[in-house]
Each structure stands twice: as C-alpha cells, then as structure tokens.
Amino acid sequence: MSVASSGTGPSIIDYGVGSGGLNTQAIISAELQPFQAPETRLQTQQLTINSNVSEYQQINTDLLNLQTQAMALSSQSGWNARLATSSNPSVATATAADGTPAGSVQFTVSQLATASSLISSGTVSSTSQIVTSASSVLVAAGVGQIGVTSMTASSGLTLGAHTIEVTQASQAASSTGTVALASQTSGIAVTGGTGSINVTVDGTAYSLALAPSPTGGYSGSGLLSAVQSAIASAGASSTLAAGYDSSGHLILSTVNQGSSQSLQITGGTDLAALGLSSATTASTGVDGVVQLDGTSTTLTNVGPGGSVTLNGASGTSVTATLVGASSQTQVNSSLLSTGTVTATNVSTGNGSLADVVANINAANTGVAASSIQTGANQYVLSLTSAKTGSNSTISVTPGAFSGSSLGSMNVASVGQNAEIQIGGTGGYVLQSQTDTFSGLLPGLSVSVAGTSSTPVTVTVGTDTSTISGKVKSLVDAANTVLSDVQTYAGYNQTTKTGGPLMGSAVLASVTHEIQSIFASVNGASSLANARSAGITLSGGQLAFDQTAFASAFAANPTAVTSLFTQGGTLQPTQAAYTGQVTVSYAPGTVQAGSYDVVVNQSATQATASGSVLTGGAVTTGEQLTISSGSNSVNYSTSAGQSLTSIAAGLNQAFATAGLSVSAKVSSSGQQLQLISDGYGSSSGFTVTSSSTSGGTTGLSGTFSGTDVAGTINGVAATGSGQFLTAPPGTPAIGGLSLQVTTSGITSATDLGPFKYTPGVAESLLGLTGAMSDPVKGAITQTIQGLQQESTGLNSQISMYAHIVSEEQTLLTNQYAALDATLSKLSNQSSTLAMELAQVAANTGATSSSSSSGSSSSGSLG
Q: For residue 90, with 0-12 CB atoms within 10 Å meaning exposed, 13-18 middle and 19 or more buried, which class applies?
C-alpha cells in the first residue's frame, strides 16, 4: 500500500513489505515547524543587528581616518611644511624639516669628506702567503676623535670588541689674555727685552725677552712669532707653547697636559699690552681619564705624540699613541678628547693575507679590508674606514705585518672633513665629518656632492604642495564619511528605498555637523569660511579646488592657516599684556568662548650667577661640570682667562653636547651667568667645580626655574614651565593649555579674557571625538548597545533551540514506537495471511479427496 502526500512534500505513509510504512522524518519535520518559527525569527533579527554593527563600525572607521587627517592640520605645526631648493643640485641638495625658518643660505664647497685609508708598503705573491705570525691584530676606526693615532693590545686581551672611552678630557695648564690681538694688522706696541713676560712652568722659572716692536707696532701674527721666538730663546719650547684662541686672545700653555703640569705668570713689563696679568697661584692641568672595558686609568702627564697605557681587567692593557701637537686646534686644546671608540681584537686565522682580510671584514670593525692585485703575482693589503672625516683615523697594531714582505702599513689617504664657506669665497668656514651639514638654518640639512667656487644658494620656503595635499586628504576623508552615511542611513531616490540605518539620529547629526563645519567655522581667521580656501559643498559632497587653495594660501598664508587651526586672542587688561597669552593645545572638547586668565606667578628660567670678578677674568683655573638630565659638559678654565672667553667656550660646548643652557657675562663683564633655555622646574641644571676658591667663576650648586601658576576661567590650572593647563574633565575648558609669557608677576594678576576659537580641523576633531571616543563616543555606544542586544538574543535562541530539540526527540521516539507497532502488525498480518493461505490450501485438498471417494463408490454400485 502506498499513500502519497499532497503537494510536493515526501510521502507520509508508504507501506512496504516488512515495514511500518511511515515516513517519520517528514512527519517530524512538519510537526516541528511551529516550534522552529520563533528561533528562526530571532536568528534573522540577530543577523540584521550584526549587519547594523558592521555598518556602524565602517562609519566609525571613516571617522577615525577623518580624525587622523584633521589632527595633521589642527595645530600650527601641521602648516609648517618646508621645501628646500638648491641653485645647483649637482653640487648641493637640501631638505628642510617642518618649521625650518624661511630664508636662504649661500656658500661655496671647498672640499668633500674623505675616509682614512692605509696600504701596505710591500706586496706578497699570493693571498695564501703568510703575512703575520701574530695570533691577532687590534683594529679600530675613528680613533682620531679621542686623540689617538694607533693602539697595540697586550697579549692577554681577548678576541672581540673592546670599548675605549675617554670620560675626562685632558687639559693643559694655561693662561689666556683678554685683548683680541690675532686680527690686528699693526699697532701692537711692546717694550721688549728681558722680563717682557716672567712665567714659571712646571716649577721652572723663565724670563721671556720679546724683540721690541717694529716701527708701527706688531701685527697679530708678528707678535705671536715674537713670543714663540722668545720661548725658544729661553729654552722653554719643550714645556711652553704660545698661540691664539678662537677669539684672538693670546694663550700661554704647557705643552703637556694633566695635573702634573703647572703654569704661573709672575710678572713682566709687557703683560698689559698682551692682555695678560700676573697670577697669585699657578694654574694646573686636568688629567685625562680613560676607560678600557669599564676599568679607568687616570693620566696625569699627557704629551703630544706620546704613548699611554690603558689598563683593563685581569692585567690586560692597550697602549695608545697620542696625536701630535700639529693636530691641536689651539695650543691648549685637549690632546685626549671625550668620546668612545670600539677596538676589535681580530684573529689572524692561519696568518695568510686571505684570512686576515676575511677575519677583519667579518668582525665588523668599521674598517674594510681588501687584498688588491697591483700586478702579476703582486697583492697589497688595503684598510679603509667605513666613515669619513678627520676623525676617521684607522688604527691597526703597528708592525703587525712588518715581518713579511707586506711591510709596514702606510697612510694612503688622510680622512678629511667636508668644508664649505658661508657667503662664498672668503666667508665663514664650516666643516663636517660627512658630506652633510646640519644647522645652517634650524632644521635644514645640506648634502654636498661636488666642489664649486661658484656660490650655491639653498632657499627654504613653504611647501604649498604638501600642505595642499594634507587639505585634500582631509576633504577626501570627510567625503568618505558623508558617502557611507548616505549609503547606510540615507534615502535612494532612484530605488525609492532607504538604507539599513535610515532614521539614525546619530548619523544624521554626523552629516549635519560636517557640512556645517566646512560651511561656517572660521576659527581666528579673517576669511569667512572654507569656501575662501577652495572648499565647496554640492550635492551632499565636498569639492576641493587645489588651484584656488594655492592662490589663497600664497596671498595670505596666516589667514588660511587660522581658518583650520585652533587659536584665540587675549583681550588684555593692560596694553603690556598684549600677545602674551596664546593657545598651546586644546582638545576637541574645548568649546569656543572667552575665558578669564589670572596669573599668580610668572614662569622663570633656572639661573646661576657666579662671583663678581674685578677685571672680568679668573685668576685661578678650575674644571666646571654642568649637567642636566642625561647630558653633561666638562669645561676647564685657566688662570687669566676672561669671562667672555669662558662664556664663549661654554656655549660652544653646550651646543655640541645638546645641553639646553646658555652662558653670558653680566655686571659690566665681571660676572658669569648660566641660564636654562627652558622655563620651569623641569629646566634645572647642576654645576660642580673642582675649585671654589677666590678668583674662580664661583659657580656651584643646583638651580631650577619656577612654573607659571594661575587660573583659567576661575579654575586652578596646572603650571608647567610657561604653560597653564585646565584640569581634564572641566566643563567647556578641560585640557585647554595656554602659554603665558608674561614675566615678573608674583601675585594674583588678571591678564584679561582669552577668546578661544576652534578652526575647521579642530572642530572636526571635536566631532570625531564625540562620535568615536572609545568610551563616551555616540557611535561607540551605539555599537556597544547593538552588540549587547545581539548577545542578549543568544539566550532566547538557545531556549527555543532546546525546545525544538526536546520536541524532536519526543516525536522521534513516538514515531519510532508507532512504526515498530505498525511493523509488528504488518508482520502479524503477513503471518495470518500465510496461515489462511495454508488453511485454504488444506481445505481445497480435503474437498478434492472427498469428491474422489464419491466417484468410486458410485461406480461400484
């Protein structure tokens, strides 16, 4: 028997032999549909919610990109892109950092930087030939920067890199004059003769007899020659030297350096003409202190061209040969200079030229080794510094190869600095260890590639193209937001359908705010709105005309910049306060408005004032150490040195070390002052001195500035240097930071209301922050709410899934039992049918037999 279902579904009843005849799967599926309907409805609802989350997340991503682009234009620094151009790129090219002052610099290029190199005096017939019996050689590059020409390792020094650091520069005992003489072409009058200068050097007294002035007086160079001749005539050339400092003052200095050296001017008839003066005590030199792998050696006697032994751990040592007097920039400049070099003890392998070259190169010593073939069966060893400049001197163990036919290592080229002359030929000369010069203008980097006697002009101007590109990126990002909001929440006139997020008040406000900001916000600018800078609104999208922008920016860059950036103006209570309060930073939550500024205390710089010295010169030398943070400077003064000369030397040292401190002379040239470049408590510095006796600078101690203190709109603000910042979370002004440059205030003083105005970029930051803030953002909270709603449906979906599962189990069991019963009945039916068939068969046989019997009987009868 077969009964088909109506419609297109499977048969519900399908009797077959040996089966209950029910299609239980179809029956159960049909009966489960009412139970599954709520679960399906909830799953569809969850899919819609999750899709909405993805749509909001896309818009949030768009807003974060808009935030990034707005951040790049929200402050003045974002508009400081600079472009450097060269009048002759084949000779010099340049790059300018953001904020580099506009201007130009002209120079000629005298020479390019070159690297130091050594080459063997002899040759070997093959690279496999043995060139040394030593197991290792000590190789280093850049040793000139610490005042060394070569180094030799002791036998116990381990293979590998070793650090050699000069932690204290050596100084000679010296005395410096106070009169600029070097540049004078004539007119320097001295009486001359025995006793012109009386000086005691290292305990030995000398009387220097100058030759009397020629007619018209000595020139600066002629006078120096006369002093040097007098030193030679007195037999003091080995211990005493004379020269000029960078300011043209005469210097008398010990030849050797270190605390074992002393110098005292005791008198003389020509001291006044030379700018020198007698000293009551002798000045002494300063020891050089050198560390080998952290172990210090103090050198009390350092001589030009001499050797010193640097002791390391466990009896190891390095012997260093110092630079000669010809390497000194002036007679009392340091022979040992502060700095660090790495010396590498390199294995020579089997001693062959090939192994020596390979091992030096593998050790990363900063020296490139090469075996150069100069002819048939002729190879030389070449060593070249990886760096250029006068400090690129190469050191290799002296005599390491002299036992072979390679011979000694000779200087092939002396490293030289690149050199330019500012203003052209005859201008101020600058040098660089590389072919790059920094600091000609703040943020300007000039790279030279060739020499030229014809001046090259590098010009720095505003990079309008880069700034225009930033504005375009901002407009593009805003359009992406507007486009996606329209897609997801707008109405399509063509299809007559709305987006899946249509009706979202949050997204409607995003569109309104973006369009309103570009249409009306003008910050502190004199321009009406963004249309004045080439930005227009049409059909719900922004358009950017880069040509119009460039034209507006060229005509009035300040106005265009102010259109986008945060700004404001102080309405001063006194004319003297005009312009003394400016916006440093304002987060997007700060509202436009006027906020009163009251200052209780002005910010100050850290200032150290030394002793007042009659005559404006020290009579006793000392070593000053000025430190701030991780930077420090060591500077040695000498008896007779003027405060002006000391200030100049300190400022040069500060610039080299990157120390934010300046030195100047006050009190009519009789007092030395150190002043921090920055303001506030964090701008402090410490001064220590080797001597605080009379006649020294008198500088010693720890000094710090004070932070500005006051209120913004009646709320106590945090002071840091010159910056007052309203506490975060303060309504309307939280995070507003104002720079206050007013000086001299010590009690509460009302400077006046400050009118704050956010620009286009800052307003966009406020919008994106309000929408996308990870905690409080409106879109962030909307996404979180939808995600919570979606998560909340999981329990309901699980509940209905459980009900469906239980009902399915129940129905499956019931229909399995019914099917089994039907199957049993079917089997019984089959059995009965068989039995009935058998009975019928038996009954038929019996009837047949009876009929047969009757016939027989009849025939008998």
A: exposed
Structure tokens at 9: 């579904």
In angstroms, how far is CA 203 from the centroid of its own chain?
A: 53
What would the two tokens of residue 788 be? 């919570």
pLDDT tens for each residue of 443-457: 999 999 999 989 999
Residues 6+ apart with CB under 8 A from 216: 186, 187
Mean pLDDT, range 122-135, rounded to an integer: 96
Q: What gap in Å lies between CA 401 and CA 512, rounded to an integer? A: 82
**Is the confidence at residue 89, as pLDDT, over 60?**
yes
Residue 224 region by backbone torsions, left for phi larger than 0, else alpha for psi between -120 and 50, else beta: alpha
3-state class of 601 per DSSP?
strand
- C-alpha closest to that of 171 among 751, 717, 653, 845: 653
CB within 8 Å of 78: residues ≥ 6 apart = 71, 72, 470, 565, 761
CA distance 278 to 241: 18
822 vs 817: CA distance, rounded Å: 9
Which pLDDT band holds residue 562 (cuts at 50, 70, 90)?
A: confident
Query: Amino acid letter at 98?
Result: D
* Dihedral (CA of 212, 216, 217, 222) sign: negative
Whole-angstrom Cα distance, residue 458 to residue 87?
A: 6
Supply the pTM of this predicted model: 0.67
Q: How far is CA 410 from CA 148, 292, 324, in A?
A: 16, 27, 17
Q: Domains of the chain (ranges plus CATH)?
A: 2-57+787-849 (no CATH), 82-112+418-462 (no CATH), 123-171+288-413 (no CATH), 174-284 (3.30.70), 464-565 (no CATH), 568-602+708-757 (no CATH), 605-703 (2.60.40)
As a whole number of angstroms, the longest Cα–Cα distance in the chain is 200
**Axis-axis angle for helices 760-772, 557-564 (nearest 10):** 20
Let me know the angle formed at the C-alpha of 117 by 304 and 121, rounded to the nearest 5 degrees: 90
Q: How far is CA 581 from CA 90, 576, 743, 752, in A?
A: 46, 11, 12, 10
Secondary structure (3-state) at 735 = coil
Strand partners, 358: none
Model confidence at 385, pLDDT cuts 50, 70, 90, reads very high
Q: 536: which DSSP letter?
A: E
End-to-end CA distance of the chain: 55
Q: Which residue, among 772, 542, 760, 768, has the nearest Cα to 78 in the 3D structure?
A: 760
| Spatial separation of the C-alpha atoms in residues 695 and 675, rounded to whole Å | 21
Distance CA 608, CA 702 (A): 8
CA 16-21-23 angle, 5° bins = 125
What's the Cα-to-Cα distance from 328 to each of 60, 202, 303, rounded to whole Å? 64, 21, 12
Among 769, 679, 631, 693, smallest CA distance to 284 is for: 693
Give yes or no for residue 841 having a pLDDT over 90.
Answer: no
| Element of type H or E holding 70 | helix 24-71
Residues 6+ apart with CB under 8 A from 316: 153, 154, 156, 157, 158, 292
Look up residue 738 and give its amino acid. L
Distance CA 28, CA 478 (A): 56
Mean pLDDT of 455-479: 95
> Given the structure tokens 């079917």, which residue do they identify?
826
SS3 content of the chain, % helix, strand, coil (to 5): 30, 35, 35
For residues 603 and 680, is the Cβ–Cβ distance under 8 A? yes
pLDDT at 280: 85
d(CA 642, CA 619): 9
Do 407 and 425 meet the contact criterion of CB atoms below 8 Å apart?
no
28, 16 in Cβ contact below 8 A?
no
Which DSSP string do the residues of 262-315 spell out, in sequence order?
EEEEEE-TTHHHHT----SS-EE-B-EEEEETTEEEEES-B-TT-EEEEE-GGG
